[in-house]
Write a structure and sequence with these properties.
Length: 95
């Protein structure tokens, strides 16, 4: 849920707005002179956005994601039970 408030309301009702963001996971768009100037979002959403931006800016990570998607499309997958068996074998020295 999103709500829009002018900066004047932000100043006078900051504690309530922070509760809305932190506790009820609302998004608050703050306007200045009727135009959006900032957004308040929960910290975990902000951290997720930062992590996504970091991933999208890393060519090696994007290449690895693309390679993984290509493997899925080609059917080069392993069932979880089979993977667990393989890993157990490696740990016990039985490859």
């Amino acid at each position: 849920m999103s709500r829009t408030v002018p900066v004047r309301e932000l100043r006078s009702d900051l504690a309530h707005l922070l509760d809305a963001v932190a506790d009820r996971r609302e998004h608050v768009v703050v306007t200045r002179h009727g135009r959006p100037a900032a957004v308040l979002i929960p910290v975990d959403e902000y951290e997720a956005l930062e992590e996504t931006a970091e991933i999208l800016s890393d060519a090696q990570t994007l290449a690895a994601v693309d390679a993984g998607l290509a493997e899925i499309e080609s059917g080069a997958t392993v069932a979880l039970a089979q993977l667990r068996e393989q890993l157990a074998g490696r740990r016990s020295g039985k490859q």
